Amino acid sequence: VQLQASGGGLVQAGGSLRLSCAVSGGTFSSIGMGWFRQAPGKEREFVGATIWSAGAFYPYYTDSVKGRFTISGDNAKNTVYLQINGLKPEDTAVYYCAAGIRARLRFRDRDTYDYWGQGTLVTVSS
After folding, report:
1. Spatial distance between the Cα atoms of 63 and 69, rounded to a whole number of angstroms
2. Beta-carbon neighbour count of residue 44 at 10 Å?
3. Which tens digits make up the pLDDT trace of 27-37?
4. How far, in Å, are 11, 23, 62, 66, 79 from residue 73 at the CA level?
5. DSSP assignment of the chain
6. Tens digit of pLDDT for each residue in 66-116?
7. What is the spatial distance between Cα 90 and Cα 50, in angstroms, rounded to a whole number?
8. Residue 125: how many CB atoms within 10 A of its CB?
9. What are phi and psi of 111, to 5 degrees?
10. What is the pLDDT of residue 38?
11. Cβ contacts of residue 9 below 8 Å, gap of 6+?
């Protein structure tokens, strides 16, 4: 499985971005997807995740991003998205998408993700 993250950039505070994660070599019927971020000098932290089931993507978010972050997906394109609205300077980080085998995936646990994208940098100016 390979993951290609894209969509990062420099944005002013209050703006929006949509990050994409294109998946190849795997299908959403067997893998779950997560989004993490790592700010300079900080640990990589969980942002949210999604599972595809019965034709829909079901998202899950960490409390700190609820209401501003939205995870979605397009099964036909084998791509998941992270929409970020109301960007804040503290959202500045490298954002990573990750995939793990659904049967043993625990969303918040980085060690249960088997595959990682290369990361895409989001910089929010004040």
Report:
1. 10
2. 16
3. 999 999 999 99
4. 23, 11, 18, 17, 6
5. -EEEEE--EEEETT--EEEEEEEES--TTTEEEEEEEE-TTS--EEEEEEEEETTEEEEEE-GGGTTTEEEEEETTTTEEEEEE-S--GGG-EEEEEEEEEGGG--TT-GGG--EE---EEEEEE-
6. 999 999 999 999 999 999 999 999 999 999 999 999 999 999 999 999 999
7. 23
8. 11
9. -70, -15
10. 98
11. 17, 121, 122, 123
Residues 106, 113: Cα–Cα separation, whole Å: 8
Nearest to 19 by CA among 90, 98, 110: 98
Joined tokens for residue 112: 């249960």
Task: State the pairing for strand pair 120-125/9-12.
Answer: parallel
Percent share of the chain, pLDDT over 90? 100
Among positive and negative, which fits the CA dihedral 39, 78, 65, 100? Answer: negative
Per-residue confidence (pLDDT) for residue 55, from 0 to 100: 92
Note the pLDDT of residue 85.
98
> What mean pLDDT is predicted for residues 38-51?
97
